[in-house]
Amino acid sequence: MKSFIVSIIIILGAYGFIYGLNKLFYRYSFFHSAPSIKTFSKGGLVWYILSIIASFGISMGFAFSGIGFDLLYENNLFIYVPLAMIVLVSVAIVAIFRIEKSAWLRRNPQHCRLFFHSWNEGAKNMMVAIGKIDDINYGRGVSFSWFDGSFLTAGRHRVEFVFYEERILSKRNMSNELYKKEMSFNFRAGVVYVIEPLPEERTFRIVEDKTRFV
User: Full-prediction pTM beyond 0.85?
Assistant: First the structure.
């Protein structure tokens, strides 16, 4: 009985920690959503996968090679192998995202920036995403996913926006789509737009934001 109570306390503590961490993240973080690889070029996707495999291989190869094993064993450094792998993978991913972003911006000098309005409701994060652009899934090629939104080529586009909730404490189906709507809009180069969901009307509002820069 005692172990059962301890287990319940640990589980509730873990849930409370995740809940509190998410609240703090939404209140103090400079961004609320990270870039997605869904808008990567084919080459970028290949390099992304290879970087993860290479980082894992380097870490494991050093850890289990003769010299590396002896060095880690003698200095009791095995605990740092996972940390080193995480650092290597993180550096590689950041580098690839920056390279892909620079390449996309060079190919599309006439572009605008979309910011997706999001907010926190306790254990749920209310988010906006792009489903399709001009019938292209995720807008690959005509847009590039970035922090809190996307870059988009200037001109008139048919964009399918998706409003969904991200349930951080759910064991399954963490992402639950609430509604989506296709909108046609003429996006001007050098302009920043905020995409605001209007749940009661099941639509979105596109607002020009003159306080931010592309």
Answer: no
